[in-house]
Amino acid sequence: MNQRQIEAFRLVMLRGSMTAAAEELGTSQPSISRLIAELETSTGLALFTRNGGRIQATDAGSAFYREVDRSFVGLEKLAHSAREIRQFGSGRLRLVAAPVLALSFIPMVIERFLAVYPRIAISLEMRSEGTIQRWASAAYCDIGFATTTPDAFGVTSAELYRLPGVCALPAGHPLTARKRIHAGDLRNERLVLPSYADDTRSSLDRVLRQAEVNQVPTIETPYGATICAMVSRGLGIGIVNPLATFDANPTKIQFRPFSPDVVFRGFTVCPQLQYTNPIVDSFLKMADDTMVLEAKHASKPARH
């Protein structure tokens, strides 16, 4: 039994005649007949009955074809996998992201990406800004998603978003009656602010000074999700990246536009010497497309 005999048998079963099978294989009908006869001899099975110029599969032939077809399906799956590996490299994508992106936005992108490329394995790590840049510089990741301006050696970066911050208020706070919160409205309020590791903090301090906001001692944290958690418990009022608002409970925390604008930025960071990788390129494109859609929503905090 050899591959040529199996191919001839499968095509005869699929096409219904030896003549059609011969045409597809680019050979003659007598050659197909000889291959089938050799296969019958090697298997000890009568695969077809002959009636003049017509053939019909026997029960044994039909049973044997089911096994042959199962094997060919397996080979076709292997061929498809090989094409994916050629097109998408190793088939694995390593991501590292700041918490505000890892907790909500990146999962949205992964959902869209896997709908198109379900066989790609993905790892996502949530790390500090410094670690993101170090990992990208050392090629420990394929893509980093940062919220501070990249300055590490050996990386390429691009701005992912530029969004105005929103004011986070405990549900039931008197300021929730307003459609927009101005910096001056925060006088005598306890504030929950980004730490100085965040690029936004210096511009936020400047805005508050210009509005002569005499802050009660503040609470500081580098994480937007933590700011929202503290505001939800009534510990103060926060100014947050709108991407941190996606999964907030409106019965505990509400959001309003804030004036003047305090801009939050995000960046993609990749190893500079990385070879062109279609997986990376596809994910970056989907991240950009998803951000365009989500930024429209995030920039218009809902009034609950």
From TrEMBL:
Any Gene Ontology biological process: lysine biosynthetic process via diaminopimelate
Keywords: DNA-binding, Transcription, Transcription regulation
Domain HTH lysR-type: start-end pairs: 1-58
Superkingdom of this protein's organism: Bacteria
Molecular-function GO terms, alphabetical: DNA-binding transcription factor activity; sequence-specific DNA binding
Pfam families membership: HTH_1, LysR_substrate
Keyword Magnesium annotated: no
InterPro entries registered for this protein in UniProt: LysR_HTH_N, LysR_subst-bd, WH-like_DNA-bd_sf, WH_DNA-bd_sf
Similarity comment text for this entry: Belongs to the LysR transcriptional regulatory family.
Protein name: LysR substrate-binding domain-containing protein
